[in-house]
Every structure is written in structure tokens, then in C-alpha cells.
């Protein structure tokens, strides 16, 4: 199987999961359902993933890694162009991102908070700026800041879904 074909199969699987999430919870979805929706056989699925949990973990990790790569581009760190590119990535893959956002297995708010912590660790002077702005111990300043950003991201995704589907 060529790498291009593998990428196509993985994309089919990802789209199938997103479609299934429109009707069912993660717990209700089986590998058989994913295979039927993706129009692949189970053997093909198992060439790429151990099970549905491995599928979700890998796709979540790939998605967050892609967004992190966009945002941490050293050529244009946090410029309007980079933020715009990250938002377009989310919009282009929105059906799946919304699907994982509502999955209990993924725990989207916790995943976003972890992602933001890693992202903040790559940005110089973050600690000093947070302490200066919040004027509370750094640990609590980070929690406040990250929780605020996670709430904004979650709300934006929810509103975007309502806008697109309504």
C-alpha cells in the first residue's frame, strides 16, 4: 500500500468517525460501524489502528500536533497570519473537530488545557507576563489564563457548529 493510499484510507476513516458522531456517542460506535461508514474492511482498519480508542488517540494527537506546528512557526510566531491559518485549519476540519469536542472519551476541555500548557511553555516571558497581569501566584495565574482560553475555544467551536448547522 502506498503512503498516498494510506493517507486516503485514514482520511476515509476520520470522515466516517465524524459522520457517526453526528448520530451516536463514542461508546455506541464500533469498529464495524466505522468500517461500514468508511467503506473499508476490518483488516484495513486494523492495519492503521489497534482499536477505536487508538484511532481517537492518534487522530487527536495528529490534529493537535498540526495546530501546534502552525502556531509555533518560528518565522511568524503568533502573528495575525499564523492565527488565521490555525483558525482555517480548524474550520477546514471542523466536522471532525466538533465530533471529538463532544466525545467523552477525548475529554476535549482537558485536551485543550494540556495543549495550551505546552504551547505556553514555548513562548518566552509567559510566566512573567501572567504574574504581572494577574498579580497572584504563578500557578493560579496559569490556571486562570488557560481555563479562560479553553472556555473561549470551546464556546467558539460550539457557536460555529450551531451557525453551520442552523
Automatic annotation (TrEMBL):
Q: Where are the transmembrane segments?
A: none
Looking at the keywords, is Nuclease present?
no
Q: Which organism is it from?
A: Streptococcus loxodontisalivarius
User: What's the superkingdom here?
Assistant: Bacteria
User: Could you tell me which PANTHER family the record lists for this protein?
Assistant: ACREF/ENVCD OPERON REPRESSOR-RELATED (PTHR43479), TETR-FAMILY TRANSCRIPTIONAL REGULATOR (PTHR43479:SF7)
Q: Spell out the protein name for this chain.
A: AcrR family transcriptional regulator
HTH tetR-type domain segment(s): 7-67
Q: Which InterPro entries match?
A: Homeodomain-like_sf, HTH-type_Tx_Regulator, HTH_TetR
Amino acid at each position: 500500500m502506498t503512503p498516498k493510499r494510506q493517507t486516503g484510507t485514514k482520511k476515509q476513516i476520520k470522515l466516517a468517525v465524524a459522520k457517526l458522531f453526528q448520530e451516536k456517542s463514542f461508546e455506541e460506535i464500533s469498529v464495524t460501524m466505522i468500517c461500514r461508514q468508511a467503506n473499508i474492511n476490518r483488516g484495513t482498519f486494523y492495519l492503521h489502528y489497534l482499536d477505536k480508542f487508538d484511532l481517537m488517540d492518534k487522530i487527536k494527537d495528529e490534529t493537535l500536533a498540526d495546530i501546534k506546528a502552525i502556531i509555533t512557526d518560528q518565522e511568524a510566531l503568533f502573528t495575525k497570519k499564523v492565527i488565521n491559518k490555525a483558525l482555517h485549519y480548524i474550520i477546514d476540519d471542523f466536522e471532525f473537530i466538533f465530533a471529538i469536542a463532544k466525545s467523552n472519551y477525548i475529554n476535549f476541555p482537558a485536551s485543550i488545557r494540556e495543549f495550551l500548557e505546552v504551547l505556553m511553555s514555548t513562548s518566552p516571558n509567559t510566566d512573567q507576563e501572567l504574574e504581572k497581569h494577574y498579580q497572584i501566584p504563578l500557578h493560579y495565574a496559569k490556571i486562570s489564563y488557560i481555563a479562560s482560553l479553553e472556555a473561549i475555544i470551546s464556546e467558539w467551536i460550539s457557536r460555529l457548529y450551531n451557525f453551520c448547522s442552523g
